[in-house]
Amino acid sequence: MKFVKWTFAAMWLFMGAACQDSEVNPNGPVILTNSDFRNNTDGWVAEVTDYSTAQEEIIEFQSGHKALPEPLDVSKKSFMLSGHNRSDDLFMFLKKKVTGLKPNQTYSIDFEVELASKYGDNSVGIGGSPGGSVYLKAGVLATEPKKVKEGDDYRLNIDKGNQATGSDAVPVLGNIGAGADATQYKLIQRSTTQPITAKTNEAGELWLLVGTDSGFEGLTNLYYNKIKVVAEVKPGN
């Protein structure tokens, strides 16, 4: 009987090692984050930029771990961002640091973002549509995206493009329109149409960024429900 027990124990150890080897595939897809904000903000941090020092007190920026708005399931939590676009260019964003990747390795990265919006695709507002003129962007960088002061303005320290135009590191996923005649909150999904290419730093780190670049000169309230980011080693690297 002891021999049988030791045989089964050895088999389990071998199977466990095999499972671990299959999961740690250096060239396979890696989930960088799969945040649903049920319990906390999962390492994401909120910031706002693209406004002047004179507008600092009137952009009304707020963020936090909040319940989804009605008529959605208010028992579920989300990451809420809210701001009044006084500059015609307000950028509200979330960022998160990812560690444990291969140092100096180039990855192909895809985003899937789900958020609650109540703004119609063709709605009319000051400066632009509350739905059609607020653009959702996502990006990946080897250095931390930060708000920096340039003269009397606050800007982002990396190139994200401007409103409907993105950059190689921070492309546009679409706008926040929730439908042609939307007036109440619903969940909308946006994703990358092609992978973003990014190279880790010497510590094997990347920074993830998701945010809205606004051409609508009014108040925008959004609730991020899910953010999933998947990476894969780029062929030839």
Overview of the molecule:
It contains one helix and 15 strands, in the order αβββββββββββββββ. With 237 residues, it is mostly beta strands. The longest helix has 22 residues, at 2-23. Mean pLDDT is 89; it is low at 1-24. It is globular. Strands 1, 4, 5, 7, 12, 13 and 15 form a seven-stranded antiparallel β-sheet that branches. It has a single domain, classed as Jelly Rolls. The protein starts with a helix and ends with a strand. The chain is 9% helix and 43% strand. The chain has one helix at 2-23, and strands at 30-35, 45-49, 51-52, 62-67, 77-84, 91-98, 106-117, 134-141, 147-150, 153-156, 172-175, 186-191, 196-199, 206-214, 219-233. A hairpin with a 2-residue loop joins strand 9 and strand 10 (153-156). It comes from Larkinella punicea. Keywords: Signal. This is Lipoprotein. Residues 1-20 form the signal peptide.
State the CATH topology.
Jelly Rolls
Mean pLDDT score:
89
CATH class: Mainly Beta
Relative strand content: 35-45%
The best one-word shape is globular
Largest sheet: 7 strands, antiparallel
Number of helices: 1
Question: What's the count of strands?
Answer: 15
Content-based structural category: mainly beta
Low-confidence stretches: 1-24
For the termini, the CA-CA separation is 52 Å
Compute the CA-based radius of gyration. 21 Å
Number of domains: 1
The ordered H/E elements are: HEEEEEEEEEEEEEEE
Percent of residues in helical segments? Answer: under 10%
- CATH-scheme architecture: Sandwich
